[in-house]
Amino acid sequence: MTQGRPASRPVILGLTGSIGMGKSATATMFSAQGVPVHDADAAVHALYGPGGEAAAAIGAAFPGVLDPQGGVDRARLRDAVLGNADRMAALERLVHPLVRAASTAFLARHAAAPLVVLDIPLLYETGGEGRCDAVAVVSAPPEVQRARVLARPGMTADAFEAIRAKQMPDAEKRARADFVIDTSRGFPAAEAEVARIVAALTERGASGHPAHR
């Protein structure tokens, strides 16, 4: 459960989950409920694109990772940093402040909304829960997670394990969360849980009560 932030308008829900848990699909369910969603991955994509705010700096720090258009080739960048803690830390120092600024601008644009979602893959790992009134973790059993990830084009078992190693264990995320959305039970069940969360947090925000459980 998050602490230290008073209830406000909008209520800020952090949405997170490890790779392969179904977080992106769940974020779309919140959007379908009319909730503004800030996608940190989409923000990174824009920052990495040709002319993006982070592209030139990343190209200077990691030679050979830019494509012919001047954007970041994410596969090359992944190969350059995975398994190297110093390089990963250097990348995060470049990118995280820019992603944070994009989310701050998003919150300003939607200041009148009753509820907004910050979709952040590494929410707990980066301390982002401190900005949120509540956190929802998207989860699935390990065998479902592994099968989903290894079905992705270009993904290998080694790459999956390297990515998972830098993410907080799913069990710890679930223990810390205000809400858990299990995507292994199918879309209708996940959609019903999302609707329940939206109703609960919208009601609490309107009443002025804290959004915590």
Protein model, in words:
It is a single chain. The chain has nine helices and five strands; from the N terminus they run E-H-E-H-H-H-H-E-E-H-H-H-E-H. By secondary structure, it is of the alpha/beta class. The protein is globular, with a radius of gyration of 18 Å.
SSE blueprint:
Elements: E1 11-16, H1 23-32, E2 37-39, H2 40-48, H3 55-61, H4 74-81, H5 85-109, E3 115-119, E4 134-139, H6 142-150, H7 157-165, H8 170-176, E5 179-182, H9 187-207
Features of this protein?
alpha/beta, 5 strands, 5-stranded parallel beta sheet
Order of helices and strands: EHEHHHHEEHHHEH
Describe the largest sheet: 5 strands, parallel
The share of residues in extended strands comes to 5-15%
Helix content: 40-55%
Class from helix and strand fractions: alpha/beta
How many alpha or pi helices?
9
Give the number of DSSP strands: 5
Instruction: Compute the separation of the termini in Å.
Output: 8 Å
pLDDT < 50 stretches: 1-7, 209-213
**Backbone shape:** globular
Question: Could you tell me the mean pLDDT?
Answer: 91
User: What's the arrangement of strands in the largest beta sheet?
Assistant: 2-3-1-4-5
The Rg value, from CA coordinates, equals 18 Å
Describe this structure in a few short sentences.
The chain is α/β, with parallel strands linked by helices. The protein has helices spanning 23-32, 40-48, 55-61, 74-81, 85-109, 142-150, 157-165, 170-176, 187-207, and strands spanning 11-16, 37-39, 115-119, 134-139, 179-182.
